[in-house]
């Protein structure tokens, strides 16, 4: 696997670690929901450029020829994606779809998960994060943030009654088709209840 493909998951792991700290700039309880909501992209970019993050969470991942020749041109992937959208759906529909995706993903869904997930909601475990069951339907289970903090490597984030993780259905289908391997076991909250 190449170096740049691992950057976002590494940043997420780092921010997950720091989000539990009361003085973290990633904490909406300390700095306010809107600051975290609007500055989410900045926090990810800043952490992705931190060499200590890479040394801590990925000491064995090094740059290869693919990183140097393709992924070093960060905007090329964006250009290819927008070009494919325009070729598939037409110029204006493709540009609109690209813009809509960028705005919703970068400035709405991702900050909602991180901002709301550390501000308010329900808890199954004793940590600084919260679950948003309704939002989990449109964020592929990522807004079950309290569960994610308690068991970050669990393949299924829904752990209690009335919680649903849509990504678990996809993971099971990919596994049944032989395209993915499930590692770890889903956690049941009744057996592990912390609160």
Helices and strands in order, then pairings?
Blueprint: H1 7-19, H2 28-31, H3 33-48, H4 51-57, H5 65-71, H6 74-89, H7 91-116, H8 145-150, H9 166-176, H10 189-192
Keywords:
globular; mainly alpha; 2 domains; single chain; 195 residues; disordered N terminus
Description:
The structure is a single chain. Helix 6 (74-89) packs across helix 7. This protein has helices spanning 7-19, 28-31, 33-48, 51-57, 65-71, 74-89, 91-116, 145-150, 166-176, 189-192. The N and C termini lie far apart (39 Å). Helix content is 56%, strand content 0%. It is globular and about 50 Å long. The protein has two domains: 1-120, no CATH class; 123-195, no CATH class. By secondary structure, the chain is an all-alpha fold.
What does this entry show, briefly?
With 195 residues, the chain is mostly helical. It is 56% helix and 0% strand. The model is unreliable at 1-8 (pLDDT under 50).
């Amino acid at each position: 696997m190449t170096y740049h493909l691992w950057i976002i998951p590494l940043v997420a792991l780092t921010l997950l670690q720091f989000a539990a700290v009361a003085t973290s700039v990633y904490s909406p309880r300390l700095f306010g929901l809107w600051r975290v909501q609007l500055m989410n992209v900045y926090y990810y970019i800043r952490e992705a450029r931190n060499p200590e993050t890479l040394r801590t969470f990925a000491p064995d991942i090094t740059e290869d020829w693919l990183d140097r020749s393709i992924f070093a041109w960060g905007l090329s992937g964006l250009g290819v994606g927008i070009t494919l959208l325009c070729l598939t759906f037409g110029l204006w529909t493709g540009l609109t779809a690209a813009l809509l995706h960028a705005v919703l993903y970068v400035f709405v869904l991702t900050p909602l998960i991180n901002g709301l997930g550390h501000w308010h909601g329900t808890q199954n475990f004793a940590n600084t994060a919260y679950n948003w069951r309704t939002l989990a339907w449109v964020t592929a289970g990522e807004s079950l943030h309290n569960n994610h903090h308690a068991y970050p490597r669990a393949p299924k984030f829904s752990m209690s009654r009335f919680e649903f993780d849509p990504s678990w259905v996809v993971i099971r289908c990919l596994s049944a088709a032989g395209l993915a391997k499930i590692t770890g076991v889903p956690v049941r909250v009744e057996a592990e209840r912390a609160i």
